[in-house]
Amino acid sequence: MPRWMMPPSASPVEPVAGRLHRRAGRLSSVHIGSSPVNARAELPSPAMTRSTPWGLPRPVTTGLRWLLWLAFNAFALYLVVALYVQGQMAFALLGLVVSGIASYLFINRRMYAQRYIFPSVAGMLVFVIFPLLYTVGIGFTNYSGSHLLSQAQVERYHLNQTYLAGERFRFTLHQSPDGERLRIDKGEQGVFVSPPLTGEPDVEAPLSLQPAEAAGELGDALALREVIQRRKALEQWVMQAPDGSLLRLYGLREVAAVEPQYRQDGPGVLVDNRTGARLTADMERGFYVDETGKAVPPGFTVFAGFANFSRVLTEPSIREPFMQIFAWTFAFAGLTVVFTLALGLVLASLLQWELVRGKAFYRLMLILPYAVPAFISILVFRGLFNQNFGEINLLLDSLFGMRPDWFSDPALARTMILIVNTWLGYPYMLLLCMGLLQAIPRDQYEASAIDGASPLDNLLRITLPQLIKPLMPLLIASFAFNFNNFVLITLLTRGGPDIIGATTPAGTTDLLVSYTYRIAFQDSGQDFALAAAIATMIFLLVGAMALLNLKLSKVKV
Amino acid sequence: MAMVQPKSARYRLWATHAALLAFVAVILFPLLMVISISFREGNFATGSLFPENPTLEHWSLALGIPYTHEDGSVTQPPFPVLLWLWNSVKIALVSSVLILLLSTTSAYAFARMRFGGKAPILKGMLIFQMFPPVLSLVAIYALFDQLGQHVSWLGVNSHGAVIVASLGGMALHIWTIKGYFESIDASLEEAAIVDGATTWQAFFHILLPMSVPILAVVFILAFITSVTEYPIASVLLMDVDKLTLSVGAQQYLYPQNYLWGDFAAAAVLSGIPITAVFLYCQKWIVGGLTAGGVKG
User: Fold this and answer.
1) How does pLDDT run along chain A (557 residues), one tens digit per residue?
2) Do B293 and A474 lie within an 8 Å CB cutoff?
3) Which residues of A touch B293 (CB under 8 A)?
4) 3-state per-residue secondary structure call for A424-488
5) Predicted ipTM?
6) Nearest CA-CA partner of A438 in B257, B148, B295
7) Are A514 and A325 contacting, i.e. CB atoms less than 8 angstroms apart?
8) How would CATH label the architecture of B79-246+270-282?
9) Residue A527 to chain B, least CA–CA distance (Å)
10) pTM for this prediction
């Protein structure tokens, strides 16, 4: 991703605003007060009292407004209640807050200005701030691939478990006008038919079977092939015979009588109907455990306090790779800033020289890496650096007779990443420096030429000292961006080569962000809580950088 | 031109040209190479910058046309590149329009109206914009998973989700537009309001027509940001038919299925329009970006 679109760039925009502020100050004599529009915002203007924007009579538009408002509130309320019923407290709360504010702004005339900013603030709230808080929250739980459900869901899961208790009966599946129906032959007890299998299967509400005589015409039985196609869905249904016994699919031709495996015995306690063994909910481990302490999956999500954080800091198989990745992340971001700045500054100084002709050509060529979408150029480099048939190794082979293995050797992989990122990042610095250099008075260089200064002297004693102050916030933003440069690592090396001895997926070129991503989303990982804990630590670092940046760039609002 | 020139200036000028040209050659090497590779035969061919036996095999596959070899065997296109490109463009268009609409109205309020909490909201936006969405992907996934159970076109594996998720990144654009609005004198709008226009009319009929250039810049920025967005799309989209280009492109380079030549053609094909848009617009984009640097 080119740098001008990097999220953390307080600064590229800020100075524009800052500069314009000064201009606005100069113009202020023209203004009647600093905010002329607002002075009238709350009062209905003469035009509004006469007609409405659509030319409709006022009562009609007012009525429409209220109707719209009611419809919106009804929908929002439905969503919030639905989420609440499903036990999704965080999402219900989010919906309540956002729709509540929207509803309030809509009816309150004094909130005119806020109506304009609401959509963007709400977008920020829902897609940036809420996920951030939610992630921090996950960091304090044990949420992971083996602890996905809530305790209530796990309890229900266990209570719905059944075991094969009795006889098996043959069944056939029939297509009736209302839907598919099962016909079960219970031998001497008679033949029974299920109601149409429509809607979602619900284990808690078994379908009652009725005698075949009462069921009416069924049509031909479906072929086995079609039963196989529907097997997954069919297995979800539980049927209840008139005598109260429960039946469930058993294989492709038979249903069997089943009994619930557990019964509830007080809160958080389940008793096995066959063995009488007691399972109790262990609220620290997030599992139902039997008397011997053995966990019965699936696990449920529980509050874990600082356990994930202390795991990162104390467990050697996590701490070692974490520290290594932490150090590399800082080194990577710092070196990237230094390299891109150095290259950009030198090139900008060269292009600044009046005698150099063809500046437009050089400029166009030099910003090309910036114009090509990063996801394409990174993948191009991935191919070019390939050990066996990458063009870079072919070139090195023919020139120096060597074929470095860029993707397996940690030091080489890191070198490659820095090379690629410098290629991607220097045009941004070049553009910034070219803009800033124009602000340095030319006569300073003339004076230094009279004194016989070398170009290096010019660079170090005139150019750099004057550039560094306005550049500082931009450099911090660039550092923060590269600190979190997920796309580069993911598309180039995927973090590899792996760190040996790590229990989490960790590679020598992983940055903290890509490490977090891999812990959460890679097949072997799915440890969302650990990932969230590390993400929380990164949030603190990024927050510090953001505040520093805001302070240095002296944002005026 | 400077009045005083050291004597060695001429030699240094030649050295400068030589250095710049050499540097440009190094910088362009990967880009030229990938164009060359897209015309080479097979997926493992090596050779010089100008292929000895140029072939359109990879280009045909990238354009979705099955390629018939000389021996009569037919290769099917491995991935729907044009569909991916279309998905990317579709998502980017819709999300940039939405971003432009919402950030323009917000920027108007921030630039022209006075209300409580304005400064903290603006600063807070800048700070929160620095947090990378990659870190909250678990939460973002869960959010859309929930939404999808009630509103199907916003669920996981839908383009709607990716579009809506992009609305979180408006802070930067709001700041850009706000800065521009503040540079425009408010007296015209004032006059309109005195003459009986509503605030909205003053904004829509007077301020907006004067701000077309900055709106174009923001639109293009939002468009390119959306096309190159990777992390969120990679988590929210799953089906091959639904992928965007940035997520799909890497499928060419899996070690088990290494389609280097096909990738090169697809990369050049899809990279050219985006690069062209950027180069065409870079004057404005870069102008807005560097102008700011000049303050002390």
Assistant:
1) 343 433 333 333 333 333 333 333 333 333 333 344 443 344 444 444 444 555 667 778 888 888 888 998 898 898 889 888 877 788 889 989 999 998 888 888 778 888 888 888 888 888 889 999 999 998 999 888 888 888 888 888 888 888 877 778 888 888 877 778 888 888 777 888 888 887 777 766 778 888 877 777 777 788 888 888 888 888 888 888 887 778 888 878 888 888 888 888 888 888 888 888 888 888 888 888 888 888 888 888 888 889 899 988 898 888 889 999 999 999 999 999 999 999 999 999 888 887 888 888 998 899 899 889 999 999 999 989 988 878 888 888 888 888 888 999 999 999 999 999 999 999 989 988 888 888 888 888 888 888 888 878 888 888 888 888 888 888 888 898 899 999 999 999 988 788 887 777 888 999 999 999 988 887 666 888 999 999 999 999 989 988 888 888 776 66
2) yes
3) 15, 432, 435-436, 470-471, 474
4) HHHHHHHHHHHHHHCCCCCHHHHHHHHCCCCHHHHHHHHHHHHHHHHHHHHHHHHHHHHHCCHHH
5) 0.88
6) B295
7) no
8) Orthogonal Bundle (1.10)
9) 11
10) 0.80
Per-residue DSSP letter, A209: P
Residue partners of A400: CB distance under 8 A and separation at least 6: none
A144 touches chain B (CB under 8 A): no
Q: Do B138 and A384 touch (CB under 8 A)?
A: no
- Would you state the torsion angle of the CA atoms of residues A481, A483, A489, A495, taken in this order, to the nearest 10 degrees? -160
Task: Identify which of A500, A345, A535 has the alpha carbon closest to the alpha carbon of residue A430.
Answer: A345
Inter-helix orientation angle A316-352/A359-366, to 10°: 170
Task: Note whether B56 contacts A: Cβ–Cβ < 8 A.
Answer: no
Helix (H), strand (E) at residue A515: helix A512-521
Output the six-digit token pair for A351: 């292009």
